[in-house]
Amino acid sequence: MGAVRVQAEDFDAAAESRALIAGRRDVGALASFVGLCRDEGGRLATLELEHYPGMAEAEIARAIAEAEARWPLHGITVVHRFGKLKPGDQIVYVGVAAAHRGEAFAAAEMLMDFLKTRAPFWKRATRVDGAVEGWVEAKAGDDAQAARWDKA
Amino acid sequence: MKAVYFAWVRERIGKNEEDIAPPAEVATVGDLVAWLAGRGENYAYAFDKPQVIRVAIDRAHVAREARIAGAKEIAFFPPMTGG
After folding, report:
1. Nearest Cβ partner of A122 from B56, B61, B77?
2. What confidence tens digit (pLDDT) does each residue in A109-125 have?
């Protein structure tokens, strides 16, 4: 049911959201999330996203299947970009349509937590002074966030 | 089987991918990580904190105890930082 796209191109979040509810009368809640590239207090010039083609899509699809097994949902779309991004650029879109807001919010949050810890993407930062800051380190807090869904 | 590397694992080893033929006693993912780490300085550097490295067999995450028999593609990479 869910749609997954991994692409270098930018996306139109509003269009993705509209597509999730087009022609439907049973959707009472649409939760959408957009992750953006931030400038880290003016230090960051670019963010390069590497990914594992094939597995990235498969892992996002698995996360979607888990969300669908957990809540009654009417539609999910996930778009994740790769390649070179700059501050202000969109990185990821998660949209969830459901009858009620509780499951829409919860599913969107779970999808983001799973994306952070399980989807094979890696960020490398370049600073404004031209220095390569290197690979962004995973946050221990991200694992804790994702682990919340194991107990629920 | 094909080994593929991503992010700083790829950079430290200096290869995107390669065909590997580990000996028969290399049975699990944990064994394979230890075997790879012994293949040279670049591999030792890539796997210097072996517990940090994540592994996927045929594009699905696996634990260290997973058996590698029958695997077509095994990927090694750092903790993920997408989203």
Report:
1. B77
2. 999 999 999 999 999 99
pTM of the model: 0.94
Q: How many Å apart are CA A23 and CA A18, to the nearest integer?
A: 10
A61 in reach of chain B (CB within 8 A)? no
* Residue A130 confidence (pLDDT): 82
Q: Which CATH superfamily groups domain A3-151?
A: Molybdopterin biosynthesis MoaE subunit (3.90.1170.40)
Nearest Cα of chain A lies from the Cα of B13 at a distance, in angstroms, of 15
Residue B82 belongs to some domain of the structure: no
Number of domains in chain B: 1
> How many whole angstroms separate alpha carbon A52 and alpha carbon A42?
29
d(CA B5, CA B16): 5
- The CATH number given to whatever domain includes residue B35 is 3.10.20.30
Q: How far is CA A88 from CA A28, A47, A66, in A?
A: 30, 11, 30
User: Is residue B51 a part of any domain in this protein?
Assistant: yes
